[in-house]
Design goal:
Layout (H helix, E strand, L loop, with lengths): L20 H16 L6 H4 L6 H22 L4 H23 L19
Length: about 120
């Protein structure tokens, strides 16, 4: 766990330090759209948003959700397991949309502490 995410007494994670409000307002739509279409996680990497703490945090979350869905798809042979993973991905997607729309940088449960493209 990185130094910007703090453990709460219940074992959950608190949101990371907020990005500047101007950064949030400028990239909020990009973050929300990325949750709707997670395969677009790379868009901030190719635009001026690559310097945005907010956009890169959510791009990382998009990529993690995409990986969860890919694993779920691969496990569809074991119907129940694949279905549960897919449902988990949907819940993460909704949580991410809510977080991005509020301008928060709240890590997603179970996968939020994994950093593939955003190092915090």
């Amino acid at each position: 766990m990185d130094e910007q995410t703090q453990q709460t007494p219940g074992g959950g994670q608190q949101p990371q330090q907020p990005a500047p409000q101007s950064d949030v307002e400028k990239h909020k739509i990009l973050a929300i759209i990325g949750y709707i279409i997670p395969v677009l996680f790379f868009v901030p990497l190719l635009t001026g948003a690559k310097n945005s703490k907010f956009a890169m945090f959510h791009a990382n979350q998009h990529l993690l959700i995409l990986i969860v869905w890919l694993v779920g798809s691969l496990l569809m042979r074991v119907f129940f397991v694949g279905w549960l993973i897919g449902l988990f991905g949907l819940v993460l997607l909704i949580m991410g949309i809510i977080s991005a729309s509020k301008g928060e940088m709240k890590p997603l449960p179970l996968i939020g502490s994994i950093h593939l493209i955003y190092k915090g």
